[in-house]
Amino acid sequence: KWQSGLAILVIALASYWGKIECYSAALGVIVSLVGSVYFIWQSFRKGNTTKPELMLKRFYRGFFGKIALVLCGFVLVYKFVNPLSPNALFLGFVLMQISMCVELILVAKY
């Protein structure tokens, strides 16, 4: 829930430094979210979830699909977006990844 709030906050803070930084950070957030949504969709689809082998296979498929989507996302952004602020792009991406890790820790703790 709070990842969307953090995404808006990151984009708003990046807008303080300029228009290019703002949309670069937004693209970093989008690349991160697209990969994560694919992972969740692939890993937790409905079906036979009683077999551990099938669940593990889905997690691997989701993980490698996420990596592929993130790489393709960065390639597309670098190829087609000009001008671009690489620092803001990676900052948006990294902050979203960190927020996901923090959320996992908080969910496991409580």
Low-confidence segments, ≥5 residues, pLDDT <50?
none
Oligomer: single chain
Number of helices: 4
Global structural class? mainly alpha
- Sheet-strand content, in percent, reads under 5%
Average pLDDT, all residues: 89
Distance between the termini: 16 Å
**Residues in helices, as a percent range:** over 70%
Largest sheet: none
> What global shape is seen?
flat
Ordered list of secondary-structure elements with their pairings:
Blueprint (H helix, E strand, L loop, with lengths): L1 H16 L1 H25 L8 H29 L5 H24 L1
Helix pairs in contact: 1-2, 1-4, 2-3, 2-4
Describe this structure in words.
- The chain is mostly helical.
- Helices cover 85% and strands 0% of the residues.
- It has helices spanning 2-17, 19-43, 52-80, 86-109.
- Helix 1 runs antiparallel to helix 4 (86-109) and helix 2 crosses helix 4 (86-109).
- The protein starts with a helix and ends with a helix.
- The relative contact order is 0.20.
- The mean pLDDT is 89.
